[in-house]
Amino acid sequence: MRATRFHDLIFDADMLSARRDDGTELRFTRHERALLLYFVGHPGKLLSRAWLTGLLARDGSEPGERNIDFLVNRLRTRLGDNARKPRFIATQYGEGYIWIAEPAADASAAAFLVIGPVYGLDAAASPLAAHVLAALDRALRKSMGPDRPVVSEPGWNREVSPNTVDYNMDVSLHLEGDTLHAAFVLRQVSTRQVVAAIRVNIGDAEITQAAKQVAEQARKAIWAHLAIPDGADATPIDTPLHLRVHDAAIVLARSLESWRENEVQLAAARAERPDDPTLAIMWAMTLYAKLVMQMQPEKLPVSAWRAIEDEIEDLAFTSLPKVQSNPLLVLGIAKLLMFIGRGHLDLAEKLADEAFAKSTAFAAAFAVQGQIRMFKGAIDQSVVLLDKGIELSERGSEFHIYLLVLKCTALLAADDRPALDRTCTELYALRPLTRVQIGFYVTPAHVEWLPHHLEAALDKYNALLARGFVEYLYNLSARHFRQRNHRRNVMLNLATHMSRRFGAEVVPQEVAEDLGWPIPAELTAIG
Question: 224 in a domain, yes or no?
Answer without folding.
Answer: no
